[in-house]
Write a structure and sequence with these properties.
Layout: H1 3-23, H2 43-50, H3 53-58, H4 73-87, H5 92-102, H6 109-120, H7 127-135, H8 140-156, H9 162-178, H10 184-201, H11 205-220, H12 230-243
Helix pairs in contact: 1-4, 2-10, 4-9, 5-9, 8-11, 9-10, 9-11, 11-12
């Protein structure tokens, strides 16, 4: 991970950690908060929450809540700081510009990925041709990057990292609600559009999560074989969510997504 990206990651982690330590914030149980899985959260809202559940886990949040956090003054301030530091977002207008780029036809990082695949000719290489090409590379980081490009494209084609862009779009949209840039219903309205596109683009939670993680690796340049990496940590979150009986990942992928809020 380069220094700029590492700084960004550490910034959000520090902001949220300080909030939890100083204010006593914690994951809310279904008995403590509105929006629990048992009664107050619809399947559509659960599905939307699932599209950014990995980030919610990373930020020590609660996947049962829209935005992944219980809305209160300290969390609101933390989210506003995160949006500014990570995204240069200070209001709804600047935030929607980021969302529009993430959800554009080729996405934000997806566009770079597709261009790189085409420029390197990976989309036309057989495995044998790729292996021959890879064997001539001596730079370890370049090898890791090229292997990622080939693996991701071979698995999911040009949509290989679309999940990374689309999932973060929903993360931003619901964060705008926590930051008081918009109301909950408007955030859910916009997130529903993105969730429907995610559902149409991928065939299952597993496929969507693979795309999200390919995108994370493309962005972070981490070594997926490093057990101490943030990539490994996020894979652990996926495993936890798959085992959790109340997790959004327990929903059927073809769940009918509809507006069931006012």
């Amino acid at each position: 991970m380069n220094k700029a990206k590492q700084f960004l990651y550490l910034s959000i982690t520090l902001v949220l950690t300080v909030c939890f330590l100083l204010t006593g914030c914690k994951k809310s149980t279904s008995a403590e908060t509105v929006g629990s899985v048992s009664e107050n959260t619809s399947e559509t809202t659960r599905f939307i929450n699932g599209t950014y559940a990995i980030m919610t886990m990373q930020n020590q949040g609660d996947y049962k809540l829209v935005g992944g956090q219980e809305k209160n003054p300290s969390i609101k301030q933390s989210i506003k700081q995160m949006l500014q530091q990570w995204w240069s977002v200070s209001d709804l207008n600047s935030g929607m510009k980021q969302v529009q780029e993430l959800t554009s036809e080729n996405g934000m990082h997806s566009k770079e990925f597709i261009n790189e695949i085409k420029e390197l000719g990976i989309d036309k290489m057989s495995k044998q041709e790729f292996d021959t090409e890879l064997s001539s590379i001596t730079d370890p980081e370049q090898k890791i990057h090229l292997q990622l490009l080939y693996d991701a494209y071979s698995d999911l084609g040009y949509n290989a990292i679309a999940g990374w862009d689309l999932g973060r779009a929903n993360f931003l949209l619901t964060s705008f609600y926590i930051a008081d840039f918009t109301n909950e219903n408007t955030a859910l309205d916009k997130s529903l559009e993105v969730a429907k596109r995610i559902q149409k683009t991928f065939k299952s939670w597993d496929e969507y999560n693979r795309s999200y993680m390919y995108g994370y690796l493309y962005w972070s340049n981490e070594n997926p074989k490093d057990p101490s990496s943030k990539y490994a940590e996020r894979q652990g979150f996926i495993s936890e969510l798959k085992k959790d009986p109340k997790s959004p990942f327990q929903l059927k992928w073809n769940t009918e997504l509809k507006k069931d809020w006012k």
